[in-house]
User: Fold these one by one.
Assistant:
Number 1:
Amino acid sequence: MSKHILIVDDSKTVRNLVAFIMKKEGFLVTTAEDGLDGLEKLYSCAHVDLIISDVNMPRMDGFTFIKTVREQETYRDVPIVVLSTEGQEQDIRTGMNLGANLYMVKPAQPESMVKNVKMLLGA
């Protein structure tokens, strides 16, 4: 069974690009426009194996999204990758402290994204 990835990013271009890269590697992909949409999609999916989230988004930012996901027992162990243009040390520290497993700064190389996702999934 293919692993399922939830991609949360307000940029349609980024969502589509990351989805294309992950689908090409055989992953099932669900996309969301922001943190609130991400929570809705997470709750409506039968199972999500990994989340890739941006930080700067309307309605609910990525840090609030990660914090909300980590507060729920069901999703506490789902790996979360932050993929953001915010690459300052404080942003990275905040993301990791809230429960992200990995913080990647855009633009990330597709090979690096795939390698890291597979590592986090043990694939």
Number 2:
Amino acid sequence: MTYPKLDELVRTVARLRGPGGCAWDAEQTHESLVQYLVEESYELIEALEAGTRDDIIEELGDVLYQVLFHADLAAHTPGEEFDIEVVAERMTAKMIGRHPHVFGDPVAHTADDVVAVWDELKAVEKPGRTSVLDGIPQGMPALALADKVIGRAQKIGVLDKDAIAAIPMQTEDELGGLLLAIVASAKAQGLDAERALRSTLRDLQGEIRHAEIPAGGQ
């Protein structure tokens, strides 16, 4: 199967960034584009959660364009010099390597089995990681970061999954109302909910790293 429209988009990016193209596009850097990648990602999330088919197509295109833009930029940046083909090649190899139960002999019948396989493979791929927290981007929104950190804390027994499920709720609507009420109450009392959660997460991550210290190694 070929994708002529995708190839056409790649050529369009190259034309815009090349000689005689768009002056703004030509001046951009990886760093200057970060704000647009974040914005487009959030717009895609909104489209996936509440948009129409056309909204999703448009926002997927905007995120795809950011990927192609960064790849074209790298192709013309000394010391980087890779293009979208290299990105695609690397990602294909990564996905095949991460799915030996599909492309190889190991068996993984359930989603939990797949996660276990991924964890084992990542441990081999990234031997320099010494903590379950390694690889978590600290710049994530506080709630998303909390979800990640809590998952890692449960993995090593710092938090008990059943013990922390103490607030009764059955739907995301109920959860959303509860979160909104917490933020509203914090605002009314002059408190910053985002900063408060990040501060608590730093403490929790400290507990996790302390728990990972081998016995006798303190």
Number 3:
Amino acid sequence: MLNRRIFRISLVGTTAVALAAGVATLASAAPSHHTSSAPKPTVVLVNGAWSDSASWSGVIKRLQAEGYPVTAPPTALRGLAGDSAYLASYLKTVQGPIVLVGQSYGGSVITDAATGDTSVKALVYISAFAPDTGESAVGLATKFPGSHISDDPDAQIPTALDAVPYTLPGGTGGVDLYAKADQYRDLFLSGRLDDKAAAELAATQSPIDSQALGEPSGAPAWKTIPSWYLVSKDDHLIPPAAERFMAARAHAHTVEANTPHAAQVTDPKIVTDLIEQAARTVR
């Protein structure tokens, strides 16, 4: 089981008149990613730690083919409060109803960001954290045994991770956590992709500040917004038992599949199908 202490490391218009009118309209309007007349809700995809927005590529292609507006804003992975505040601000630029999807730590981000946002009609968790008030990602990850993130309960840093200190311009800094390249394939993909593909994903991963994983969550959006959950039965990072616990607590429409942690990478159809289930309920 992952030791709780391991994250305490500072955890064209055709005329000139028309063009001018168009510019004036754009200048006065709030930013928007699609029009409110879109026939389907906008799907907003939120990545977690040790991945990036590109991890949603297979899902995006399928959703767009079905006519869904889709966007995948980047997750800074600097801290839960900041990451969720950024996403909450971003959601205000999206017109019309939203289906908000989070994977891994991205689940924590959507849980906080969507609270009180009446545009968000459905939450979809993909092998994700769905914390309650005061809970953290590391606390939920250690609630049940089975994670491969560390095989040494006394290690100060999980054995599957590397700690990389960084310094900000003002002299302050923190610690970024990277997944080790030689353990990435097992931890996130459960051996589903070949070594070359896994190595590429490991090389392009986005690290997470260690503090983000221990930061407590605020009031959860899943208490007021309908949710869907993909339990990945072959998840080597978040124990499947933890996923079942979170899904049941949220009264989520739950699907279980023999998928790894990064199900959106290895099994985009399963992920897309669940998102579409949620989207079909939005009116």
Number 4:
Amino acid sequence: MESTDLPTSGSLKDENAKVLTYRVRGIPNGLDKAGAKSLLLAALETQNVTIESLAAASSNQVATIRVPGKPLKLKNWGTSKSQWQVSARGVSMTVDTHFGGFTPLHDPQGDSGSFFE
């Protein structure tokens, strides 16, 4: 998934103006958005990450993130153009743009109250 407000001409300036959405799997349980952001900034070696969602998924957490441009850590890295392995602080995570399978966007454990009456 890719979103941009500016037309692209293939230049580095235009590429850095894009804001791309990625899914990140393997974020340790117990990290809140601030902790996950710190970990992702280190893993992606970038200056800016916005966490759109962070939710539990079996033994770890899954996040959807937005990053301006494509982090250098992901450019021309490996053979895949839609999935990468990154790590920081001893944590290995999978970053992708294909969003294959189930992607939880909300963790209902923190909710109080019911949705239905």
